[in-house]
Amino acid sequence: MYAGRITSEEKWSLGNYIGVAVAVLLTCWVLYFFVLAQQEKNATRGFDPNRPIPSDAVLRSRLTSEEYNVVRENGSQTPFQNEYWNTTRAGIYVDVIDGRPLFTSLDKYSTGLGIPAFSKPISYDLVVEKPDNSEGMQRIEVRSKRSDAHLGHLFGDPKSPTGRQYSIQSAALNFIPKDEMAAQGYEKYLPLLEKK
């Protein structure tokens, strides 16, 4: 009779079972987080007009601190030191929060002020214009209608074809080059880039 004694062979088998169980649990844990990361990546890939607006916590993790400051805290960027002030490539500019197309390269023009300026949005229904009396100035703030992102300000400008200058912060936008629009889900917006 063994009376509860564990032999060395039984110890070895028990150790193997525990090791395999730990390895299986670690593999499941890694796979779980891999699947979560893929879901987050897929949730932001391509344009989906019905995608819900991310929560503030998600935006804080997804956007850079400068982007978050501009779109949620009404911040501004330094002229001539922002991403799109001198971009001349053909394409569309989309809301950094939800990817909604807001402006085209055909409506972008240089004001010499070092920030992107557009004569008009793709559709006036995509933006909200409201009075802004902050910082001791009387201006018109421009916000994205769906995501409520602060985009910039609207000014009168005789050099603009519409007489309007939408001075938009680069950090509020993502640029989609014309040759990448179809692959990123913006194919139906390609006709907007045909010169009239």
List the helices and strands and how they pair.
Layout: H1 8-44, H2 56-62, H3 65-73, E1 91-95, E2 101-104, E3 108-109, E4 117-118, E5 127-132, E6 139-144, E7 150-156, E8 164-168, E9 173-177
Antiparallel strand pairs: 1-2, 1-9, 3-4, 4-8, 5-6, 6-7, 7-8
Question: What's a concise summary of this model?
Answer:
The chain starts with 7 loop residues before the first helix and ends in a 19-residue tail after the last strand. The chain contains three helices and nine strands. 27% of the residues lie in helices and 21% in strands.
Tell me what you see in this structure.
Strand 7 and strand 8 (about 165-170) form a beta hairpin. A six-stranded antiparallel sheet has the order 3-4-8-7-6-5. The N and C termini lie far apart (about 95 Å). The chain is an alpha+beta fold. It folds into two domains: about 1-45; about 55-195, Peptide methionine sulfoxide reductase (Metal Binding Protein, Guanine Nucleotide Exchange Factor, Chain A, Beta Complex), CATH 2.170.150. The longest helix is centred in the first third of the chain and has 37 residues, at about 10-45. The model has no long low-confidence stretch (mean pLDDT about 90). It contains three helices and nine strands, in the order αααβββββββββ.
